[in-house]
């Protein structure tokens, strides 16, 4: 009859403060990882959709003034419009005021290069925010669960030794319960690792397209001519993810 009471609820009920704390830590890890995976996946999907729409508009616009006015009116809510807005603003600012400050020193193309690089760094930082949490959860959750298992096995064996009942049914039940913590740790870690890999891959595709767009935009702003095949960024962004 005693073996019928064994299970997850019984394991929680007989766990000490350390076991409950480790389970709470795994629960927090799971909530944090799932929150980041869902939020960043939805945000990334929406940004890719808006980016494709902006690139379609950009390469079909009649002038940079039309692009600048449209971005200023609707705000830069995704990486490509953000980059275009700052690049066009930087070119116009340098042409109007010249190198009046240290950060504006150099030629117009050098100032434009620094501006583009700064925007790309900002977008990279924004995309990578939270990924360190997923990486930490994916690498540490199994060990937290393993520690909980070791702790549970230790207490189970101590209790069995003190009771003097060393039969198989008295040993297998408590030890099997302790393995629950290892399973919980793996259940927390696996989604975090898969989510991390998916987000890193998605970010790499977007950043690759953004870098290609930056080269086209730089050439267009400095020479007034578009690279042949500049519109291919739309295809890369659409199919890369």
Automatic annotation (TrEMBL):
Primary subcellular site in the record, as a coarse category: membrane
Membrane topology of this protein: Multi-pass membrane protein
The keyword Transmembrane appears for this protein: yes
Annotated ranges, domain MotA/TolQ/ExbB proton channel: 94-206
Signal peptide: none
Gene Ontology, cellular component aspect: plasma membrane
GO BP annotation list: protein import
Transmembrane segments annotated in the record for this chain: 21-42, 133-158, 178-199
Subcellular location: Cell inner membrane; Membrane
Alphabetical keyword list: Cell inner membrane, Cell membrane, Membrane, Protein transport, Transmembrane, Transmembrane helix, Transport
PANTHER family linked to this entry: BIOPOLYMER TRANSPORT PROTEIN EXBB (PTHR30625:SF14), PROTEIN TOLQ (PTHR30625)
Record note on quaternary structure: The accessory proteins ExbB and ExbD seem to form a complex with TonB.
Known function: Involved in the TonB-dependent energy-dependent transport of various receptor-bound substrates. Protects ExbD from proteolytic degradation and functionally stabilizes TonB.
Family: Belongs to the exbB/tolQ family.
Protein name (Swiss-Prot/TrEMBL): Biopolymer transport protein ExbB
């Amino acid at each position: 009859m005693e073996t019928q009471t064994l299970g997850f609820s019984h394991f929680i009920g007989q766990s000490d403060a350390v076991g409950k704390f480790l389970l709470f830590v795994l629960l927090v890890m799971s909530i944090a990882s799932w929150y980041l995976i869902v939020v960043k996946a939805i945000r990334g999907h929406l940004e890719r959709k808006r980016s494709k729409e902006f690139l379609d508009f950009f390469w079909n616009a009649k002038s940079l003034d039309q692009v600048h006015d449209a971005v200023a009116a609707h705000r830069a809510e995704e990486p490509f419009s953000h980059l275009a807005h700052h690049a066009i603003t930087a070119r116009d600012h340098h042409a109007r005021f010249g190198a009046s400050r240290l950060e504006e020193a150099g030629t117009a193309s050098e100032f434009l290069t620094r501006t583009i690089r700064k925007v790309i760094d900002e977008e990279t930082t924004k995309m990578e925010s939270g990924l360190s949490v997923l990486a930490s959860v994916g690498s540490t959750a199994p060990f937290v669960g393993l520690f909980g298992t070791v702790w549970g096995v230790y207490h189970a064996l101590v209790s069995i030794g003190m009771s003097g009942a060393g039969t198989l049914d008295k040993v297998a039940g408590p030890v099997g319960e302790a393995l629950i913590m290892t399973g919980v740790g793996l259940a927390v870690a696996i989604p975090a690792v898969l989510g991390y890999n998916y987000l890193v891959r998605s970010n790499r595709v977007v950043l690759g397209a953004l870098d290609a767009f930056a080269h086209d935009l730089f050439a267009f702003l400095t020479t007034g001519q578009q690279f042949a095949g500049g519109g291919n960024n739309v295809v890369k962004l659409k199919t890369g993810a």
